[in-house]
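Could you help me review a protein record that somebody else here produced? Do not assume that whoever made the record got everything right. The record follows directly below this note.
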Amino acid sequence: MNCLYQTKRISDLKEKMLSSKRYASIEQARIITRVYQENEKLSLPKKRALSLKAALEELEISVEDEELIVGNRTKGIRYGVVFPESGCSWINQEFETLPTRPQDQFLVKEEDIKEFREKIYPYWKGKSLEDAIKGTYGIEINGISKVVKINQKDHAQGHICPDSALWLKLGPQGLMEKAKKKLKNCKDEQKEFYECTILVLEGAVHFMQRYHDLIESEKIESLKEVGKICMKLSKRPPETFHEAVQSLWFLFVILHMESNASSFSPGRMDQYLYPYYQRDIEKGILTKQEALEILECLWLKFNQVVYLRNQNSAKYFAGFPIGFNIAIGGVDEKGNDTYNELSLLCLKAQEHLGLPQPNLSVRLNKNSSHELMQAAIKVVSLGSGMPQFFNDEAIIQPMIEDLGIEEKDARNYAIVGCVELTTHGNNLGWSDAAMFNLNKALELTLNHGKCLLTKQQIGLDLGSLETYQTYQDLENAFQKQIDYFIDKMMAAEKIVEKAHQDYLPTAFLSTVIDDCLEKGLDVTKGGAKYNLSGIQMIQVANLVDSLAAIKQLVYDDKMISQHDLLNALQEDFKGYEIIQIMLLNKVPKYGNDVKWVDELGNQWACYFREKMKRYTNYRGGPYHTGMYTVSAHVPMGENVGASPDGRNALKPLADGGMSPVYGRDLQGPTAALKSVSKLNNSCTTNGGLLNMKFLPEFFKTETGCLKFENFLRAFVDLKVPHIQFNVIRKEDLLDAKVHPENHQSLTIRVAGYTAYFVELAGKLQDEIIERTTYENI
């Protein structure tokens, strides 16, 4: 693989992409609105299907002369799409501020704002998913928002790994034939579902043909072969590697056009694309260098789709984390380690490009090969924040035992978005359902249910730190506070899921999720084989450090009185600086392999997980839990007053999800791993996240890389589910903050995703800069 290089084609395309301006686009909104207006008497599923078909047939398209893979959901690169079916009200409020908001900015055109206000918004006002949820349960959702962030309120549900292998096997024509056969003999209540799938698949066929027609009409000689491929794919499944990669990209473009959501993930691409690669190599019609160039063209396309979120959500999901997660390596259905040349080519593509997408993941296990690990470590050392690593030894068994996933499906797990775990092609995992701020719940427990920041009563008044006679009394009250907000959260989740069924049925997605076509049932209504919902716990590290401090300094050693600590928290430590120093320095912290401290974390994570087992989602499936933050640790920290771990009010919570609070893991990376290993893996079946930061110098020698491989093998043996790395100097990040113009291509691992550092808001940049950096293992 060392002889492979990045071609001029790729460097030219990358430069074009990075220099493109990013706009908000109303083109698809215009088409959707017109179709709805023309078909008022039809059912909503029919209008949804017809509007996607119209978009596929009418949206303006473009190609670049150098491309080997074509297609996008807008003519422009990295455009944010206004999508009226899911939400218009927030756009109406924020349109003018999109270019200047703190996070994830988009340029706007005055004529687009005018058209939106005069023609699009008046039609959709009160009719979207966003409006339905606000009207039904908006007051209740706002009432718990300091503790619980309910997601998916103004956009469709993504976080899905479609059955890409099925798409490649049948193509849109094959899937259409299957739907037509089902339609002939279906029940009356299934008829509309099949009719809708046929409509959207017809649109997919036309979409592919349009790229052929554009290339032919503009006489682009360099794209003649690509045009032929597009026409072939509209008629039959792919036969070559190039055709398969182009077909795969069409699948993901169309999924984004239908739902305008994040985190549709290709999954184990090195497994299902390998037969096409191997066949072409053996026939002599493809070389490794040509295959790499095709892959790198695909990598560039993954970076051309971003997601337009409202200003508040952009703080929680900062840096455009669109979440095209590709997993390489891992065990096969028999439990044997598997990787191939395509796995290594995926790593080589990331090595060459160093871009935020796709979110490249490597699955490790006890038999992972030295070759794959060293190839991955080489890419890690370059500092793009990729790949991240997942541990088969920690993930597969809990999926089977806790979620009832079949063994073959669990062994074939994929990752969606950041770190969320899913089965491949048969699961609506709803993995981003909500985020639960455990630290805010503790704050309310300590202060009569009142917010330290606003003094408002938002939780149960169970007493305060002054009234709990024992540490056990405090724990009992904390349990009740958690239970109260969980009940509120679950009621909100039912409202949100029902709204998605009513307002955003997804006929196209349903064609590539098993068993929707067999059941004649839309994926939003439970058509998938597995129907999960995932809730994130935020943030166990701060919680553990807070409880450890209270237990030791207040109740056990009585070094701080209950009255003084509560006053210190209420005053944000002003006048109580000595108490803050004691909280920070007199108690062991999570992340240093201190058994009693780490077990506190496991205790509360397991308590939360067990509570989730009592609930069933609106599709009849189970709830489960994850421990990851995206970038929510910053805005969620802004909701929390001073905390007993010594943290000041409004400051960020710990990054990651399983990570220690930055600066407190003083015993090195192995001790941090051991602390994280105390967390029960049943608590992270929805995904867990451990962030670490190393200096680039560590990887300069062969010895350093071998030591790092041993560290990763310890990660596997300790059964920690996930780990990822930033490899960068603090000085470089500080310079990038001051001189962003000199660091436009600098990428950094935020949480479970990579983003351009200079595109992040200042508070998030500061938090990343302050994370602990390891010099050695």
Observations:
- The chain is about 50% helix and 10% strand.
